[in-house]
Amino acid sequence: MPEIEAMPYWLDGNFAPVQEEITSFALEVEGAVPPELCGLYARNGANPRDGHSGHWFLGDGMIHGVALREGRADWYRNRWVRTPRFEGRASRNPLDLRGSVAKTSLVAHAGRIFALVENALPMRIGPELETLGYEDFGGWLTTPFTSSLPFATAPAAIRTKVLLAGHDWKI
């Protein structure tokens, strides 16, 4: 009898890929959200659309976010990062800075949110997690941009601002 292969941990349980985009409002909170926390708490990660992946790091980018205001969790939503590859328009050129998925991390910079991956331009994300497009900063960025920024040594206030982009998007 053939051996049954176990489901990889990154495709099962709490780690399983999310198959659809959702939005929920007026979220119930266990405990309390400090009223001083006002903004967007968001995360980005690989999420294979078809539910299968040979490695935890493979899959299209999906952003999950919770809007916090005045001690409330106003909404939760998750959105795919709509890159050309996600939309079926991937380039065959491995050096194309717009030919990858934006799935590794998020950073807030100059009042804007960017989804990052190591081999492409930053993808700009709007305040409701919508994909706005690649950003080359007026042509100044002509190479891939890192997605592993060195925030571990930054003061806690700076790290918090990266994760909690201000509600008015002024960072």
Layout of helices and strands:
Layout: E1 23-25, E2 39-47, E3 60-69, E4 72-80, E5 105-109, E6 112-116, E7 123-125, E8 131-134, H1 156-163, E9 164-166
Antiparallel strand pairs: 1-4, 2-3, 2-9, 3-4, 5-6, 6-7, 7-8
How does this structure look, described?
Strands 1-4-3-2-9 form a 5-stranded antiparallel sheet. It has one helix spanning 156-163, and strands spanning 23-25, 39-47, 60-69, 72-80, 105-109, 112-116, 123-125, 131-134, 164-166. It has one domain. The termini are far apart. Helices cover 5% and strands 30% of the residues. It is built from 1 helix and 9 strands, in the order E-E-E-E-E-E-E-E-H-E. By secondary structure, it is mostly beta strands.
Short description:
This protein is mainly beta and 171 residues long. It has one helix at residues 156-163, and strands spanning 23-25, 39-47, 60-69, 72-80, 105-109, 112-116, 123-125, 131-134, 164-166.
In helices, the fraction of residues equals under 10%
**What structural category do the secondary elements indicate?**
mainly beta
Number of domains: 1
**Largest sheet data:** 5 strands, antiparallel
- Span from first to last CA? 60 Å
Strand order of the largest sheet: 1-4-3-2-9
Please write the string of helix (H) and strand (E) elements.
EEEEEEEEHE
Low-confidence stretches: 155-171
Which outline best applies? Answer: flat
Beta fraction: 25-35%
Radius of gyration: 17 Å
Let me know the average pLDDT. Answer: 83
Query: Total strand count, please?
Result: 9
Count of individual helical segments: 1
